[in-house]
């Protein structure tokens, strides 16, 4: 199967690659073809038009798929090309070709860091700074200027989200031991405003009941204590959306209870419903992995 790194060497030696600092005008090019191609990036396949890529001739893929370089390419299945890079990150690369701008992920989403994406843009010869819009550049500047204390608090928020997600996975791992076809449960976590009981986390309830698993989850949440209430008060809606996006089988409900000046609580109600899907499981297993020939 074709490997993009080999092609890059050929193109570089032949002087086909245009400098990385070319002006934006260099990216405007009439489409050479509407031929559809498949890019197999690290095992994940993307389909696009050749003309989508060649519209940006100063980039690596834009140069690679120019008509003059067709003889250097050796596809499999007539129109499939293997690229030995991160398949999940590549969707941001392809977004650039389709939208003529770089769409940066929101901070903390999909566990994709800006540093990872910048490395990919650099590899594919895409000048990231040139195609980011003003709002994104402003956000980047704000993140860069964040003080060590702000970064510390942001990490606390990220750690809290990770513990919640890990708790969900632990529950699912236990349920899947007896049934892979389908399972459902309700996990309720209660955080108090004051450090009254168990350092802020007051209860962990599972339906169906599982005392051993509930104690494990309680122990993992103890380090957050009163912070849990504060983080839910500030970012509860965003946390719920993030968890549902990463684990679609989970729905999030957040209830605020006030019984007095000091008796305030947040209940997180997590409904977990899993239904087996043969094709989805297969596509995400090693059985679907195709080695490079």
UniProtKB/TrEMBL annotation:
One Pfam family cited in the UniProt record for this chain: BTB_2
One GO BP: protein homooligomerization
Keywords associated with the record: Signal
Highest taxon of the lineage: Eukaryota
Coiled-coil features, chain-numbered ranges: none
UniProt keyword annotation of Translocase present: no
Record domain BTB: where: 35-141
Protein's UniProt name: BTB domain-containing protein
Organism: Rhizophagus clarus
SMART domains hit by this protein: BTB (SM00225)
Signal peptide: 1-19
Keyword Cell cycle: no
